């Protein structure tokens, strides 16, 4: 069971921002920006590189809900960044696909 599955199952506490039958959004405990929220599909997919065609509707839902959460927490006007890490060199630390919402300050490019 991944860390995110434990959070979704309420085995570990989280500051929940949004939840529906497919995704779970919560504040990151080690934020990299003033606002840092993770949006996680409840059905685990290890990483984006392992997503299948049949995961398309869930991935679309994940992105649409990330945009909704960003609006909900007031990031729409100033802007925000959505990040999906893949693999060790991509910064992946939990093998359960998730989308980071980063905002609340100007974000530089390129990252990392």
User: Could you give the order of strands across the largest sheet?
Assistant: 1-2-3-5-4
- Structural class call reads alpha+beta
Radius of gyration: 13 Å
* CATH third-level topology: HIT family, subunit A
Tell me the series of helices and strands, N- to C-terminal: HEEEHEE
Q: Average pLDDT, to the nearest integer?
A: 96
The number of distinct β-strands equals 5
Secondary structure: helix percent = 10-25%
Could you say how many structural domains there are in total? 1
How far apart the termini lie comes to: 29 Å
Number of helices in the DSSP assignment? 2
CATH superfamily: HIT-like
Largest sheet: 5 strands, antiparallel
User: How much strand?
Assistant: 15-25%
Show unreliable segments. none
The CATH architecture name reads 2-Layer Sandwich
> What top-tier CATH class fits best?
Alpha Beta
Describe the structure concisely.
The chain has two helices and five strands, in the order αβββαββ.
List the keywords.
alpha+beta, single chain, 112 residues, HIT family, subunit A, five-stranded antiparallel β-sheet, globular
Describe the protein's architecture and organization:
The protein has 112 residues and is α+β, with helices and mostly antiparallel strands. It contains 2 helices and 5 strands. It has a 5-stranded antiparallel β-sheet, covered by helices on one side. Strand 1 and strand 2 (23-27) form a beta hairpin. The longest helix is centred in the middle third of the chain and has 17 residues, at 56-72. The model has no long low-confidence stretch (mean pLDDT 96).
């Amino acid at each position: 069971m991944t860390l995110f599955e434990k959070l979704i199952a309420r085995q570990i506490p989280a500051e929940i921002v949004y939840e529906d039958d497919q995704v779970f959004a919560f504040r990151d405990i080690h934020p990299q920006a003033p606002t840092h929220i993770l949006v996680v599909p409840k059905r685990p997919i290890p990483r984006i590189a392992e997503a299948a065609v049949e995961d398309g509707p869930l991935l679309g839902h994940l992105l649409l809900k990330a945009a909704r959460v960003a609006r909900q927490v007031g990031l729409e006007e100033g802007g925000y960044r959505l990040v999906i890490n893949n693999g060790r060199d991509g910064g992946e630390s939990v093998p359960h696909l998730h989308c980071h919402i980063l905002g609340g300050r100007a974000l530089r490019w390129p990252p990392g």
